[in-house]
Amino acid sequence: MRVLGIDCGGEYTGYGVVEQDECGRIHYVCSGAIRLSSHQALELRLMKIGEELSDVIAHSAPEIVAIEDVFYAVNAKSALKLGHVRGVAMLTAAQAGLPVIAYSPLSIKSAVVGYGRAEKLQVQLMVARLLALPAPPEPPDVADALAIAICHLHTASTLERQQASV
Asked: Does residue 55 have an active-site annotation?
């Protein structure tokens, strides 16, 4: 299974593609960050996210897209902008015919680090270790995107094992 994880953000939107082989091993495919300029109009930033995610999907051929679930933010304006980015990511996946599944930040950190309140650096280090990367992914948004994809692989594998034992 090949999964595209997307970490939606207003300044950087991270993406990461990972794959699980028949033996259950997880492999790194690609990752990166879409850098957005605060000087551009919101609609142009959203268009850039859609275009770049479309390219990632075309080149990496994921089977599913995993994103972070909506969470509560103190700043309503920031939450609204994040919602726009998340909507574009979901729309881009749907236009490519890909299902989208969302995971809570707690679930993602628990699946990757083993602790739901892990710090960003812990997530970066664990992602690098799980994927045998030479260094922690930068910026942290890339590590978060890879963590989201890894979370989906772990969750899907667990559900598959549970169904097989029934």
From this structure: no
Q: What angle do CA 123, 126, 132 make, to 5 degrees?
A: 135
Active-site residue identified among 11, 55, 68, 119: 68
Which listed residue (63, 119, 141, 144) is catalytic?
141
Provide the whole-model pTM. Answer: 0.94
Look at residue 14 and give its three-state secondary structure: strand
Q: Is-catalytic flag, 11?
A: no
DSSP assignment string, 111-160: HHTS-TT--HHHHHHHHHHHTT-SS--SSHHHHHHHHHHHHHHHHHHHHH
- 144 in active site: no
Q: Identify the structural domains of the chain with CATH numbers, from first to last.
A: 2-165 (3.30.420.10)
Residues 122-155 pLDDT 10s: 999 999 999 999 999 999 999 999 999 999 999 9
pLDDT digits (tens, 9 = 90+) for 94-106: 999 999 999 999 9
Q: Please give the mean pLDDT across all residues of the chain.
A: 92
